[in-house]
Amino acid sequence: MRSSPSGPDPLDPGAAGFAHRGLHSGLAVPENSLAAFDAAIDLRAGIECDLRLTADDRIIVFHDSDARRLCESPLQVGKTMWKDLASLRVSGHPIPLLENLLEQVAGRVPLLLEVKTQHDVRRWSPALSRELAGYRGPFGILSFDPRLVGRLRSEMPGVRRGLNVSDGLSALRRNIGMRRAAPDFLGVERTAIGKTWVANARNAMPIYCWTIRTAAERTQAEVHADALIWESDGRPRT
Q: What pTM does this model have?
């Protein structure tokens, strides 16, 4: 990762970047699994992963709002107690809690914790504060929801906060979201890399680019971003 015009980045993952949902590879090593995180650690890559809040305020590492795609179950994460989700399996692997991930990583690589909100913005800060209070490794909290990112500024002061921005977002919505979130860094969709607004934002904060899946995408993004969030053939040269 080359130096950002905005200065040093406390979450700098180095040349290995951030492995998207861990270093996963099909059914044997599924996304957001402890096995995928182990593989990323072996590569010395940072880890990007997804967080969801259960009905009883437990934080699980899981991308979707329900368990249909990954577990063939109709259960909705936000409406289900952890004890009922704990028995589900993703290709034979248990769904990790955030506490399991933190214990496994133990500060060895930086973490990008992407919070998936769903009518639960007010419940996130207490849950995150509880789980992350004793963690001493580098981490940042990332979200598409500018309300959450903005709230964390006062509710979890000192924590690195990032806003994910899609390429298809209108300039008006993007600007409103960035003002509301006041982020420390941006996660930018790959197809937006190289646009003027990204270059301007990079003068003020680090830019992470998602999701890099090919060598050609990596070559382009390396010029315009400070760190790459990658998977598959987007794996960086280290």
A: 0.95
